[in-house]
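Ligand: iron/sulfur cluster. Inputs:
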Amino acid sequence: MINTRKENPYWEPSRKGFITNYPNFLHWKKLDVDEMQSDRPLNLYVHSPFCAQRCSYCYYRTITGSRKSEVDRYVDALCREITLANERFGLNKRPINSVYFGGGTPTLLAGDNLKQITDTLRQHFNLDNAEFTVEGEPVTLTEKKAEILKELGVNRISLGVQSLSDDIIKLSNRQDTEAKVLRAIEFAKSTGAVVNIDLMSGLAGEKPETWEYSVNRALETGVHSITVYKMELYTNTQYFIEVRNDTLQLPSDEQELSFMQYALDKFEAAEYRPWSFFTFTKEGRYTHVHAPSIWRGDDCFSFGTSAFGRLGDWVYQNSNDADKYIEMLEAGELPINRGHHLTALDQMIRDVVLGIKLIHLDLSAFQKKHGFKLNSLCGAEIETLKNDGYITVSENEIVLTPKGILHGDYVGKSLGKRLAEMY
Ligand code: SF4
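Predicted complex:
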């Protein structure tokens, strides 16, 4: 918007041409006040760290064996956080896109705990048009708990199934069995909510037969949505100890890739279509609101120990020490522990690496938001990814090919790396 025309009189050294403002008023358009006031949508995340057991591959900070009184104290603190954050940031005027109870295992919370949190949220926010998801482990989703979720207005239930093969489940130190999983799925479906189940590829003991069994059984349940996560080995897991001691073998990367390829083929044949590179929904319907909204750059305020969120130019995380989290809130302080101010470049990279998870990256929206054509920033990488068969590129979008979907975050990482070199 700088006047770059050659005949511009101010290109010669001179004291003339004082810059009053930028961009020049010539570029300003008539503006409706409502446009300025339009409140950006907000997503809400609520974290519950409690679990029924410690799964062998899990690297999250979770808490097992808690007494009800300890959970009650945590929930009181969490509700205090919702109130305090609202007072501090004035969040309650913003339209709410989604609410997501994650963990940990939110379905392990007692009915009164779930109700207390939901009531507190409703005191501060209008959830009438929001997607409301609760995550759970199948063994904790009883018929009664499912009814409670329905009463609370939950309209999406996401169950961490991981495997439907009893041998694999046992090796993961989980309490589920195939029969318990199938029962929980029926309870979830009976609420009328959209039901997603997570599978995990690359678990200990997984063989083509067990993986194929899980994928086929998952499809037979007829759930609305199936998500496949790749198991990643972290040092703070039981798996890691056993692999290091040579008492456990995990499937190789090549095997895991072939498991995922099998799942992709089966999902396609069953008309489960991807809306992200790891979630597949019946006929492409029932797409999720929460994660896509965040990946497109919307804010998410997150409550609970170790919860992380985004507000405007800031990303932040609460204390991951649950005791400290509670003590801070009991002292009337917000438990935010660390954060990062997003520069303009951070925001661009974030929009690319998170946005491409949705398979389609809207290049016009990127240019409108950031003022750059993505191609002008990482054209060579885009060309290479296209030639290698990971993406197709049109004037308005980059789209992951089946190969790009199979390789998960690879495209995002490649483009993000190039952009990060501009720091
Ligand atoms: S239930 Fe989920 S969060 Fe809890 S230990 Fe197992 S994998 Fe981790």
